[in-house]
Amino acid sequence: MFKKTLLALGLCLAVSASAFAAVTEKVESGDKYQLSYPVFTLKKEKAAQRINDDILAMALATKALLDKPECEYKAVGTNFEIISENDKYVSLIFTTWDNMGGAHGMYYDHGLVYDKKSGKRVPYTKFAKAIKAGDLYDGIASRKLKVYCRDLTTVSDAPFLEYIKKEAFKVSNDYILQDGRVYLLYPPYELDCYARHYLRRAAEKVSLKIEKLAPSLARRRGSFLCF
Description:
Layout: E1 5-10, E2 22-30, E3 33-41, H1 45-63, E4 75-85, E5 89-99, E6 106-115, H2 133-141, E7 147-148, E8 155-156, E9 175-178, E10 181-185, E11 204-207, E12 218-219
Parallel strand pairs: 1-11, 3-4
Antiparallel strand pairs: 1-10, 2-3, 4-5, 4-12, 5-6, 7-8, 7-11, 9-10
């Protein structure tokens, strides 16, 4: 799969797995599409419905790519991974992908964190102090902020950053919570190439000083990102 960029900020404390929501995998398939997405069951039924509706809309939007006459998709689909959860929040990666018949398909990891009481998406600033896009850009460019690959050992030089104008660089809205940290996700080719760590589904994170603390979320279903 593809390279992403992840921004690491600080969180703390662990919670009991007893607060986990019930999650059922829904699978839909047909000509040129394969959708896999979660269906949540929570004590707050309206919250669960809001989460499920939000994710389903993303899945159906991916399927709708096949209806575009100007594009000839060979296949499209979605899959997901529950990253972490506590009694208040659930964090997951929802992956959308498409293949137009090139050397490889395109995969996009959407980092989603939901409030289990309201069912609404929660911004990363709920857990960590906001960072300005320019400061993030300068930190990466100057190497004061190291960019690590998914294995947390390999360091990326972020060679593609120089092709992005500083004023155009954005702080991603996609993020996950795992192992006491916030990780902001960036799209493929944002900072580095696809092929470099393809077999390991390489992703990157930028290590920053802890700015704010909040309860961390316990990991579910193994370690999708081994941080």
